[in-house]
């Protein structure tokens, strides 16, 4: 199988599931293809008995009150759970909320949470501020640590190991089955931020207890939605998560859920194309004299590439670029400012290409594969790959004349 097909294969295999999950079943009168948007706060019942009965169904994706989810939210939850291979899903207001809600649900004062050093920056900020203030001990492990080294980071109070694989800035691919074994052997749960791998990495088949998504990225796909999801695969975990979601008022708006479900329908073909373009661009960048290293999981020299090849069915559209050490931050800034097709922005997974500097803004406890050189990440959209190459080529002239 060629590299081009390898990175797109998993996305294309999703086509049938994405087209048919969370669809209405036609009755004798027919129905629309898409579930409708239902906006509302109050749900009224024909009797107190019916209200009480429905209120007891809070774990069953039923309409109880607007702040507990709408019908379109519940349909989206079913779709995300199906793609992740889980049993239940909680949609929340943002990707960051999807990272923080399970930490609140499963950690208490005196517990220890072990994070991958490549974890999403805002998740790290939450850990260093809110979790520490609430009496939770926080520490970090090197993303590429081997089993024996990882065991040394576990304490008797470790309740959660939180990983992000690959990291969305430094792109280390971690051995999730190994991490799951360590977590479970020590009585802890393994959480994974699976945003990059959504649809192409099966978290529960590889041992994770809980999977986190920024739906803003691949599923919504059009840079117009902020939403997140947490998926689980067993009833006890689901009930604890769902209760905490209700207790903290976590919910997503019906319009955002509808837009995400609509975006989900075309995610497979969008990401297949974007994955191919991203790999082409990454391979081309490896050959440019201005570039010292490209951090793309499908490239053999990316940390954890062998794990990616073993566990993933495709690749995403986000990767990192490390410039040659002779260039300064000012050189890189001039180069980025001269790009015409790459917008400067912090998100990814949408239809448009973006660039973001990753030098200076990332907190690490252990060495990064970017080293000390200037680096940036690229989100590759649906533009023609040749056009994106031309744009980067003309921007690199800003480095050559520095």
TrEMBL record:
Known cofactor(s): pyridoxal 5'-phosphate
Gene3D superfamilies: Aspartate Aminotransferase, domain 1 (3.90.1150.10), Type I PLP-dependent aspartate aminotransferase-like (Major domain) (3.40.640.10)
Gene Ontology molecular function terms on file: cysteine-S-conjugate beta-lyase activity; pyridoxal phosphate binding
Biological process, per Gene Ontology: L-cysteine catabolic process to pyruvate; transsulfuration
Record keywords, A-Z: Lyase, Pyridoxal phosphate
Record flagged with keyword Lyase: yes
Known catalytic reactions: L,L-cystathionine + H2O = L-homocysteine + pyruvate + NH4(+)
Modified residues (N6-(pyridoxal phosphate)lysine): 217
Origin superkingdom: Bacteria
Coiled-coil blocks: none
NCBIfam families: cysta_beta_ly_B
Membership in a protein family: Belongs to the trans-sulfuration enzymes family.
Protein name: Cystathionine beta-lyase
């Amino acid at each position: 199988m060629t590299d081009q097909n390898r990175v797109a294969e998993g996305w294309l295999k999703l086509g049938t599931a994405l087209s048919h999950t969370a669809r209405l079943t036609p009755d004798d009168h027919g129905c629309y293809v898409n579930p409708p948007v239902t906006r509302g706060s109050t749900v009224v019942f024909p009797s107190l008995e019916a209200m009480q009965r429905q209120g007891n169904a809070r774990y069953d994706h039923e309409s109880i009150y607007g702040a507990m989810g709408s019908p379109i939210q519940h349909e989206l939850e079913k779709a995300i759970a199906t793609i992740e291979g889980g049993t239940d899903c909680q949609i929340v207001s943002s990707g960051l909320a999807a990272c923080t809600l399970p930490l609140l649900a499963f950690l208490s004062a005196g517990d220890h949470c072990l994070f991958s050093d490549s974890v999403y920056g805002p998740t790290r900020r939450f850990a260093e501020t809110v979790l520490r203030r609430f009496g939770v001990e926080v520490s970090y492990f090197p993303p590429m640590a081997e089993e024996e080294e990882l065991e040394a980071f576990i304490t008797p109070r470790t309740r959660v190991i939180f990983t992000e694989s690959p990291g969305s800035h430094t792109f280390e691919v971690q051995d999730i089955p190994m991490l799951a074994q360590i977590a479970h052997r020590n009585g802890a749960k393994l959480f994974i931020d699976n945003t990059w791998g959504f649809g192409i990495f099966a978290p529960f088949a590889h041992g994770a207890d809980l999977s986190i998504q920024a739906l803003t990225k691949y599923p919504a796909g059009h840079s117009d939605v902020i939403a997140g999801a947490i998926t689980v695969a067993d009833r006890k975990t689901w009930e604890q998560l769902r209760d905490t979601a209700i207790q903290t008022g976590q919910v997503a708006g019906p319009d955002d859920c509808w837009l995400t479900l609509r975006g989900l329908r075309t995610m497979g073909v969008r990401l297949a194309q974007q994955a191919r373009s991203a790999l082409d661009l990454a391979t081309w960048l490896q050959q440019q004299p201005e570039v010292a290293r490209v951090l793309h999981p499908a490239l053999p020299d990316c940390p954890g590439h062998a794990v990616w090849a073993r566990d993933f069915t495709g690749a995403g559209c986000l990767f990192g670029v490390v410039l040659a050490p002779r260039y300064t931050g000012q050189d890189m800034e001039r180069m980025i400012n001269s790009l015409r097709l790459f917008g400067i922005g912090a998100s990814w997974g949408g239809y448009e290409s973006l660039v973001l500097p990753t030098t200076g803004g990332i907190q690490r406890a252990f060495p990064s594969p970017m080293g000390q050189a200037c680096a940036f990440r690229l989100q590759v959209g649906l533009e023609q790959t040749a056009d994106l190459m031309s744009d980067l080529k003309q921007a690199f002239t800003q480095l050559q004349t520095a």
